[in-house]
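pasting for ref. prot 1 ->
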Amino acid sequence: MLSQLLPMLAITFSVFVLFFLFMGIGYMVKKQPLKGSCGGVAKLMGDERCSFCGDDPNKCDSLMAEQRETAAKAAQLGKSV
């Protein structure tokens, strides 16, 4: 039984490691946080209002645009954000 369990655990662990590795590479390439649905899990649990975006799915995009503008202004001044 142990001889069957160890390869399965090794494969499962390897898949998880690859998953997180690719997520990290994707973050480094795009420089954007992972995006989810606005209140997707909360709505499944019965909450009607999203506490993060206030039921405005464009709010996260506008915040990211503001952060990019701030970073660009800081880069022009020669400072890192």
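and prot 2 ->
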Amino acid sequence: MPRIQTDNSYQTVITTFDATPGTCQDLLDALTDAYEAFISKQPGFIAAGLHVNDAQTRIANYSQWERREDYQAMLRSDEMRKRNREINDMCKAFEPVMYEVAACFD
């Protein structure tokens, strides 16, 4: 489960994917498989979540890592490079952005 706290040292990555209603489920399946089979087993991985909008035109992904370098190493792996090429073919665009938690509200 993601840990959203201002006093942590984790690397938070939020990625948005632009899809179409015709490709959204395929993209979601590919992302789910990537997390279940590979990403979640990588060093430094903490947690992630996938979110889909009602129109099935956007997928948002929230992931946390122990260190920025852990996330970067996962991205640079041969396995993830191959998967990202396939994911790219299923969406109009995707953009991962690294963030720090600025505030939390319960």
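The first helix runs from residue 24 to 37.
The helical segments are 24-37, 68-76, 78-90.
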